[in-house]
Amino acid sequence: MNRSRWQYLLWAILLLSTLCSVRCAGGGGGESGSAGTDGTIELGWVSNQEPDLGGYRIYYGISSGDYDHSIDVGRATPLGNLTTYSLTNLVKGQNYCVVITAYDTSNNESGFSEEICGTAW
Questions:
Q1: Given pLDDT bands bounded at 50, 70 and 90, which one contains residue 21?
Q2: Distance CA 8, CA 3 (A)
Q3: Which of 11, 55, 91, 113 has a CB 3.0–4.6 Å from the CB of 74, allowing a cystine?
Q4: 67-75, long-range: CB within 8 Å, 24+ apart, which pairs?
Q5: How far apart (Å, rounded) are the C-alpha atoms in residues 9 and 43?
């Protein structure tokens, strides 16, 4: 990706903070807020339309700025110009902070998006 394309990509990823949907997904049964590893956080962001987009990486952890988990979601699930991904196997009721990066087919990775935080349910 050239510099202007990366700038576009970073702009699109930064939209995460305003367009991202952090919603609590019901886990079916059990008490609300009960501990367990069947919690989920649903994420959505504006897709990058660059032809050399390799995919996205999601970094997350339980403290702001401390992302001790990461997952390469590839191109994830595009729905039109929105990309979605479900973070699963989280502790119900636990707060998580998340950032996303994008990378191209040469594995050049963008900087972190703006951080968002939400509770797994």
A1: very low
A2: 9
A3: 55
A4: 67/97, 67/98, 67/99
A5: 18
Tell me: the pLDDT tens digits for 77-113? 777 778 889 999 999 999 999 999 999 999 999 999 9
pLDDT at 105: 93
What number of helices (H) and strands (E) belong to the chain? 2, 8
Residue 117: what residue type?
C
Integer Cα distance of 16 and 44 in angstroms = 8
Buried b (16+ CB within 10 A) or exposed e, 24-59: bbebeeeeeeeeeebbbbbbbbbbbebeebbbbbbb
Closest residue by Cα to residue 31 from 41, 39, 42, 23: 39
Please state, as a whole number, how many other Cβ atoms lie within 10 Å of the Cβ of residue 104.
19
What's the rounded Cα separation, in Å, for the pair 96 and 44?
Answer: 15
CB 24 within 8 A of CB 32: no
Question: DSSP code of 109?
Answer: B
Q: Which domains does the chain have, with CATH numbers?
A: 3-119 (2.60.40.10)
